[in-house]
UniProtKB/TrEMBL annotation:
This protein's name: Chemotaxis protein CheZ
GO cellular component terms attached to this protein's record: bacterial-type flagellum
Stored InterPro entries: Chemotax_Pase_CheZ
A GO biological process held by the record: regulation of chemotaxis
Pfam families for this protein: CheZ
Matching SUPFAM superfamilies: Chemotaxis phosphatase CheZ
Domain of life of the source: Bacteria
GO molecular function: catalytic activity
Length: 238
């Protein structure tokens, strides 16, 4: 079937329109295949969307759990910073672990000096008791000298406490200095943060209302400022 041409088409020199071929008929089997393909595509798309939603839901749940953990970590870090600031201020005020270690060292030194004096005195007593034992004593007096010598031996044995006590205290001092060294490293690392420097500035040292320990300063160490020795006291009476 040819299509009728108009006069205007001839005058303009337009090409003739080719007759259109009749469209092939689509079979029912082909339509079923297309519909099945569309249904499969829809099912796959729906499954993909469900899986995506479920994945997003799981990731959101994990993110919320992680946020909770991060909040706990932040709270723990804040408490740690506060504790480190308190330790830093207590060390600067002379009441921290460094001061305690120095006090224990002073205890060992004082105990050692006292034990040396005791041993010297006991040794002198032993020497004099031996001289008495060889002297011409009245009847019944040597048994008293024997008692003195027995007590001298007991005193020697008792003076062993200084060695054992010194070893134990030195172990404690070593542990305290180990902890102090690592705390100093932590404080040095945290001090690089502006927030921690501000915390050190405003962080007060907590004290109980009924705490009277500050009134009990005790004996001073040799390198403490304002240390007064026996010579200074004797000079007041000159």
């Amino acid at each position: 079937m040819t299509q009728k041409r108009y006069r205007i088409e001839d005058s303009l020199g337009l090409p003739a329109v080719l007759p259109t071929a009749p469209s092939p008929e689509v079979s029912n089997e082909r339509l079923d295949q297309i519909l099945n393909a569309i249904l499969d595509l829809r099912r796959i798309t729906q499954m993909s969307a469900d899986e995506t939603i479920e994945t997003c839901r799981r990731e959101l749940h994990d993110a919320l759990a992680m946020r909770s953990e991060l909040d706990l970590m932040k709270e723990a870090i804040t408490r740690t910073k506060s504790e480190l600031a308190t330790l830093h201020r207590s060390e600067n005020s002379g009441k921290g672990m460094r001061r305690a270690a120095d006090e224990l060292d002073a205890v060992v030194e004082s105990t050692e000096r006292a034990t040396t004096q005791l041993l010297n005195a006991v040794e002198e007593i032993e020497t004099n008791a031996g001289m008495l034992y060889t002297a011409n004593l009245p009847p019944g007096m040597k048994q008293h000298v024997d008692i003195i010598q027995e007590r001298v031996i007991s005193a020697y044995e008792a003076c062993n406490f200084q060695d054992l006590t010194g070893q134990r205290i030195n172990k404690i001092v070593g542990v305290m200095k180990f902890i102090e060294e690592h705390l100093d490293r932590l404080i040095t690392a945290w001090t690089q943060l502006d927030s921690f420097r501000d915390l050190i500035t405003v962080m007060p040292v907590p004290t109980a209302l009924d705490d009277e320990s500050s009134l009990l300063n005790g004996p001073k160490l040799d390198d403490d400022p304002g240390h007064v020795d026996q010579n200074d006291i004797d000079s007041l009476f000159d």
